[in-house]
Amino acid sequence: MNPNDPDTSLLPRDATTGEPLLPTNQPGYYRGFSTMSQKPYWDETTRDVATMRVERPPSLHHFNVEQGRFWRAVFDHLLPQHDRTPERRIPIIEPLDERLYQNRGIGYRYEKMPPDREAYRLGEQAIQEEAQARFGGEFIYLPHRQQDLVLQALHDGKNIAGKKIWKQMSIRRFWQLLMQDALEAYYSHPCAWDEIGFGDPAYPRAYTCLERGEPEPWEVEEDRHEWLAPLYTVSDIIEDTLDLHLESEQSNYFLE
Fold this sequence. Notes:
The protein is mostly helical. It has helices at 44-55, 65-78, 93-101, 116-135, 144-156, 163-166, 171-187, 190-196, 247-255; strands at 13-14, 227-228. It has a two-stranded antiparallel ribbon with strand order 1-2.
């Protein structure tokens, strides 16, 4: 097996045959759509920012090499990109590293949460302790599914280790912080815009088709298709989260 070949156990599967779907340049339901093809129509500032995100992602300055490997592994579970070819994968850890290096917050901080730099330091320690308690090894060296289960315990708040750490910050709020950073990095990138069919910033040109949800002339029609979760993940487990839409239940969730 070529070491550069994708691990098929981590690929989404064809809904009919169950066979792995090989990585593509553009996953999603909008095949052929290219946000960056529209950059001649943007203002200079927007064009420069989008181009920088695609061509010049920041290097790591806050995390050291080992921390970088650790958090890259974590975010590979939170937002898997195995369905993308390597050159089209969206940097997640780099924007986070830049934010922490500049000691830049997200605009607010909950009363019982430490500053973000400290939260990530404590979070790494807690995840390592959970990995050791559950599977007897460092998180980075565990098999993929065991890593999934460690992070699922964090998501569910059903940890068996790191008790002292979770007395210093809310496990729920820390998970929220992780996902906020992951989603902000992912969906601010033009490759994600291609995936979801986002019609680009459209400034100063603006949008013209404002009725019935019709695509703009430069967009493409949605081509929805079914697929199955990878074999060695827990992402195909469906949970009822309806109660989390109720304000009272959300308050209880974060107070646990």
